[in-house]
Amino acid sequence: MKRNVIVSTVAAAIVSAMMVTACGTTGSGAVVEKAAEGSQAASEAADAVASSVEAAEEAVSSAAEDIQASTDEDTLGDEFEKLKEELTYMGGLYISDPQNDLMMSIFRQDGEPYVIIEKLGHIYYGALITEDGKLDDGREYTKILIEDKEFGYHFKLEDEDADSFLVDEDGTVYPAKDVDESVALDMVKKTL
Q: Fewest C-beta in 10 Å: which of 104, 141, 152, 157?
């Protein structure tokens, strides 16, 4: 709306200036010719102004988006730092299978356990709700019930021969390795 008013005002001013100049010349043909030239110049000037206004609007919009993104990142960073102080990392496991990239981390916050599971880019997280489970081969593990899915884990214990493993939601068992705390905290960021 503002752009249209600016363009119209500039065009009217240029046409008026051309008409005044044309009136000072003799002969009606010259006046018509000068008016046509003025109209063409006004049109070109209006296009130039419209283009400049559009570029300015885009620059302002882009700057506003940058400011909002920066503010969001600062807020998210502050929120994460506060949350990080409240969390105690309990442990985590991951598998490295291209068809089933699966990672699980457990934290404690205010005495309550929470779990984050990432599978092929999808994040599941919430309160750690568990049940005891047993594999067909007799190995025991802990089932995790989260977002209508059932995963499972077993951390290798000092007094046993079984290694750590994860169980995905379709019941497939994968040998697993420990997740570093820094990687686990990166998982937390993804939940914010």
A: 157
Nearest to 105 by CA among 155, 179, 189, 190: 179
Q: Helix H segments across the chain?
A: 2-23, 28-86, 181-191
Find the helix or strand (DSSP H, E) in which 119 lies: strand 112-119
| The residue to which tokens 């506060």 are assigned | 82
Place of tokens 């356990």: 113
pLDDT in single tens digits along all 192 residues of the chain: 555 545 455 455 555 555 545 455 555 566 556 656 666 766 776 676 667 667 656 755 655 565 554 555 566 678 878 878 899 999 999 998 878 889 999 999 999 999 999 998 899 999 999 999 999 999 999 999 999 999 999 999 887 777 999 999 999 999 999 999 999 999 999 988
Calpha distance 155→148 (Å, rounded): 23
Burial class, 142, CB count within 10 angstroms (exposed 0-12 / middle 13-18 / buried 19+)? middle
The answer to whether the predicted template modeling score (pTM) of the entire model surpasses 0.85 is no
Q: Are 144 and 104 in contact (CB under 8 A)?
A: yes
- What span, in angstroms and rounded, lies between the C-alpha atoms of 54 and 56? 5
Cα gap 81→66, rounded to integer Å: 22
Counting Cα atoms < 13 Å in the Cβ hemisphere of 123 gives: 13
